[in-house]
Amino acid sequence: MSPLLGAGAPVLAFDVGGTDMKSALVDADGALLGVRRTPTPVQPEHTERAVLPLLGELARELRAQHPLVVPEAIGLVAPGVVDDETGIGLFSENLNWRDVPFRRLAAEQFGLPASFTHDVRAAGEAEYRLGPSSRFRDVLVVTIGTGIAAAVFIDGEPYAAGGYAGELGHSVITPDGESCACGGRGCLEAIASAGAITRRYNRVAGAGVTGAKDVLARAQSGDADAAAVWSSALDALALGLSHAVALLAPEAIVLGGGLAQAGDALFVPLAERLERFLTFHRRPQLMHASIGENAGLVGAAMRARAVLEHA
């Protein structure tokens, strides 16, 4: 049950991520039914050709499990550059697609009105509208996981700029630094995302850890290589956030995603580093995301319901 979402039309919600995808059927009370995590079928190119049929299979399973809940719309969210106005996935470096009309394809496949937006914008909107940061007008919701991206809210309204706003992970932190999946070098995402922390540690230590939490655990146990990788990631995050503070002056920065689960091990040193970069700037309140791992699904459901409300 998601009491935050509240009553409304029943809808299907899908959150396609760089590693896995989540699916749920949302009933009229706002409960998330049959939440399931499925590996994303990433292909060398045109991943959408594998994703869309899988969404159909997941929808049929959800409908079979809950036959009394009849969805009236579909909400789909995905990473990369997404143009909300046209419903097109312009680019995703992690999922290998370009210029895919997801909203139209989803509507045709399901025979329902469809919404399509960026995964972090959807999760960020759920967080901003339904979480404690709603008391502020200018907010940045940053998700740190496979990649790094932000949802931007200015004067209480989302700012997307044709889908290109919020790509904090692709701001350059160290010119000629680490190679990034986007084709650039020195991007924040290539240094400080959970995936980058894992890859960088394994490279320098000759290890085989599977996640950033393992790197942090080793750092806390005295592993010098792990401590250096973790510290450099925090340095990069603080620098990237300081640029966002200088440009947007948010009252609050909400941190979510897998890396935010590190708690004080992330928030305390990050706040200290960020403070060192700021002079006259507005000091944002660093907040932990409150909705949890299904924020993307909640945001997808909110967008799907909005399609019906504005039909």
From TrEMBL:
InterPro entries: ATPase_NBD, ROK. Pfam families: ROK. The keyword Kinase applies. Keywords: Kinase, Transferase. GO terms for molecular function: kinase activity. Belongs to the ROK (NagC/XylR) family. This is Glucokinase. It comes from Paramicrobacterium humi.
